[in-house]
Structures are given as structure tokens and as C-alpha cells.
Amino acid sequence: MDTRDSIRPVGPVVIDIENITKDYVMGEETVRALRRAWPDSLPLFVRLSCTDWIDGGWTLEESIALSRLLASEGVDLVDCSSGGLAPQQKIPLEPGYQVPLAAAVRKQAGIATAAVGLITEPEQADRIVRAGEADLVLLARAELRDPYFPLHAARALGVADRLPAPPQYDRAFAAAPAAGQR
Predict the structure, then answer these.
(1) Sign of CA dihedral 134, 137, 138, 142
(2) Backbone angles phi, psi at 144, to 5 degrees
(3) What's the farthest any 2 CA atoms get from each other in the chain?
(4) Closest C-alpha among 46, 58, 65 to residue 82
(5) Interval 154-164: pLDDT, tens
(6) pTM of the predicted model, to two decimals?
(7) Could you give the CA distance from residue 151 to residue 160 in angstroms, rounded to a whole number?
(8) Are 50 and 63 in contact (CB under 8 A)?
(9) Residue 67: HSE in the Cβ half-sphere, 13 Å Cα cutoff
(10) Which contiguous run of DSSP H or E holds residue 159?
(11) Is 19 helix (H, G, I), strand (E, B) or coil?
(12) How many Cβ atoms from other residues are within 10 Å of residue 77's Cβ?
């Protein structure tokens, strides 16, 4: 079997939950095949574009229904992203703009979620998880700009002892070096 055939999205698919029909939805068969192949000891994440941000496009309500189905098929977490597909979309770009999507999916579908979307500050990420808006925060551009974001965030949040730097990096993350030790 060509693996491209076994993992590509299928359509049209009718999702039983709330009678939602769409031309492009990940089929139950695909999730079942992934769950069979993927060890139970490892989590299975699915990334959804939770809204197209356009009238007549994919909606958050449809993503919630799909997330319920995914949970029933063994998906452990939904990574809640959005948009980027339609030229007429109106995305409200502001810090954490996709966090409400993760919060809604988490609350209404009963599945763990990851929040994404202009999450750039340690305190912001911490607040999202502590408030129960998501179970996990995933970063992209923030880590491209700062590959050591997790270490810097741990220091900023006062928990550096819980996330030590790798031993080979100790000197780089220690206090300012003495003269002649740079």
C-alpha cells in the first residue's frame, strides 16, 4: 500500500455528530488506521483549522463536532489553528487570537487542546494553561526567534530549576561569566 494513499484526507465525508457534511474532512477510517499503527503509549495529536474566518466556510461549531468524533476514535489532543486558506478571510491578528478556539473545543468537545497563534511571552503561555483555556501551548515563530524560549521562559517564570539547561550549555545559561572566561 502506498502510504500517501493511506493518510491523505478523504471526501466527501458525512460526520454523524450534528449532521455536518463537508467536502474536506479527515475520515474516521484514517484516524482508526493511525490509532492502530500508533502505540497506545504515545499521544495522537490532530491539527485542525478550526475556522476559515469567512462566511460559508468551515466553522468553529463544525470543528467542535469533528473534535468529538476524533476523541471517540482515540485522538488525544486537538491542536487548534485556523485560517490561511481564503484571500477574503478577515483574521483578527492579535496576541493569542486562536486561544478562544482551543478553549471552545476543549470545553465543548471534551478533548485536550493545544493553543497556538501569536503566543510570544512566557507569562501569556502560562496564563493560557493555568486558566484552563488549553492543556498545552505550542510555539512556532517565538521559537524561531529564540530557540531557547523554553529555558528563557522557565527563568522568567521562576521555575528554571524544573527545566535545567543541557549540561553542555550550562556555562551559556549560568550567571554572567567572569572576565577572561567568555
Answers:
(1) positive
(2) -65, -40
(3) 70
(4) 58
(5) 999 999 889 88
(6) 0.79
(7) 7
(8) yes
(9) 32
(10) none
(11) helix
(12) 22
Rounded to whole angstroms, how far apart are CA atoms 129 and 90? Answer: 27
- C-alpha 65/C-alpha 71 separation (Å) is 10
Domains of the chain: 3-145 (3.20.20.70)
**Which residues are bridge partners to 81 per DSSP?**
49
Strand partners, 115: 80, 137
CB 32 within 8 A of CB 79: no
Coil, helix or strand for 52? coil
Q: pLDDT tens across 25-74, in order?
A: 556 778 888 888 999 899 999 999 999 999 988 899 999 998 998 999 89
112-115 and 77-81: which strand pairing?
Answer: parallel
The total of other beta-carbon atoms located within 10 Å of residue 57's CB is 16
Q: Cell numbers 449532521 label which residue? A: 19
Q: How far apart are CA 105 and CA 77, in angstroms?
A: 10
